[in-house]
Design brief:
Blueprint lengths: L1 H26 L5 H16 L15 H5 L2 H11 L21 H6 L25 H8 E3 L12 H6 L13 E4 L19 H14 L5 E3 L12 H15 L5 E6 L11 E4 L2 E4 L1 E6 L2 E2 L3 E2 L8 H18 L7 E4 L10 E7 L6 H20 L2
Parallel strand pairs: 1-10, 2-3, 2-4, 4-11, 7-10
Antiparallel strand pairs: 5-6, 7-11, 8-9
Helix pairs in contact: 1-2, 1-4, 8-11, 10-11
Length: about 375
């Protein structure tokens, strides 16, 4: 009897999962039969072998969970379907929980750390011409997720490095939006229930440095989209972030700040910069292209090349000024809400076994890198 009930639940769950694929595909008649079959097989595999959804590759973050979970993809399809003819999105309003972050308390938590931050001058010069092939160049700068691939010429390094990403610091309106799709990401010494000690507290510190040291006006959005579940966090945040940008047309830079998740058996994402223990970080790109579907038209990103230019220029600055602190840039096949502004960057700062102080130390470097790229230094 128990076996029969279990089997019944399994079949029901499998049916619902398959319908989750079939219905959006039915709406999008342009999807190829190969894409339909591939997606069905992915869902079938995930139901029969749950670990399929969490296969890790070299230096792969737990961010992949959100990439492989196709619920985010389904939401994009369904909301796309719900758009009115005038282009306005018709979707349920999202209830956002706002929290109180105290930047001064954040700073006091790391007082007494070893040394103070002094911005570096250039230590090295990267010569792209020294790489023998496009493949060697790509492997040097990127980790490409199994779900997608990059063909020769799809990343034009010379063109990306020539893109002008500079902005003006003039005016009183916000120029930078900083937010957290995954607000619940904490560190090894985070205090349960205290947002000041999580990635949101780190974001408050980064916003403070950008404002007080470099003169930018930063809007730090404290919406929470992953309190009960990480599933669909990108989908839940999208209407809110779009509204913020619509209401603040002065914003030219969007930063989605995360904390990564790693296999702790592989060590710790930490290095020393001028005697300070500093969490390593990684820049992340979604390119709206998978091996099974090719370029995903309904995940259009008109700013893809700008996004790639932003992360590449940040990576090169990091390598030249602070060698060893920036991991390889990561490329995944979906979009991650990077389609709303040209200068959008997703940052994975440290991991679950880094301390809060190590993440704070990395913010001083990130702020310096951002200022160099945004001022054209």
């Amino acid at each position: 009897m128990i076996f029969g009930q279990t089997l019944g639940k399994f079949l029901k769950k499998l049916l619902l999962s398959l319908m989750g694929v079939i219905m959006p595909i039915y709406i999008y008649e342009s999807m190829t039969m190969e894409g339909v079959v591939s997606k069905l097989l992915q869902q079938l595999g995930a139901q029969i072998f749950p670990i399929y959804s969490y296969v890790s590759t070299e230096d792969t973050s737990l961010h992949r969970e959100d990439a492989i979970e196709l619920e985010y993809l389904y939401y994009d399809e369904l909301t796309h379907m719900m758009e009115e003819e005038n282009g306005e999105l018709v979707a349920e309003s999202v209830k956002v929980e706002l929290v109180a972050i105290d930047p001064e308390r954040t700073r006091s938590m790391v007082e007494g750390q070893a040394g103070t931050f002094t911005p570096h001058t250039r230590q090295y010069i990267t010569n792209l011409d020294a790489f023998e092939s496009y493949d060697d160049l790509t492997k040097h700068f990127y980790i490409i997720d199994d779900v997608t691939s990059v063909e020769e010429g799809e990343i034009n390094y010379q063109e990306l490095l020539k893109k002008d990403l500079t902005i003006s610091k003039e005016g009183d309106a916000p120029q930078i939006l900083l937010y957290h799709t995954h607000s619940q990401e904490g560190f090894a010494d985070s205090v349960p229930g205290d947002d000041n000690t999580t990635i949101m507290g780190v974001g408050a510190y980064l916003a403070g440095v950008l404002q007080n040291t470099y003169g930018y006006k930063v809007l730090h959005h404290l919406g929470k989209y992953d309190v009960e579940s990480r599933d669909n966090a990108y989908a839940r945040s999208l209407p809110e972030i779009k509204q913020i940008l619509d209401e603040n047309p002065s914003i030219q830079v969007v930063i989605d700040l995360h904390r990564d998740g790693i296999n702790e058996a592989n060590g710790k994402l930490m290095t020393q910069v001028d005697g300070r223990d500093t969490a390593k970080f990684m820049f992340f790109n979604g390119i709206s292209k998978t091996n099974s579907q090719g370029h995903i038209d309904y995940l259009e990103n008109p700013y893809l090349q700008d996004n790639l230019a932003f992360s590449l220029q940040m990576k090169l600055k990091a390598d030249e000024y602070y060698p060893g602190v920036a991991r390889k840039n990561y490329i995944n096949g979906y979009r991650y809400n990077m389609h709303l502004k040209a200068r959008t960057i997703l940052i994975e700062l440290g991991a679950q076994n880094n301390t809060f102080g190590e993440a704070i130390n990395a913010c001083d470097i990130l702020a310096h890198l951002l200022d160099m790229v945004l001022t054209g230094q």
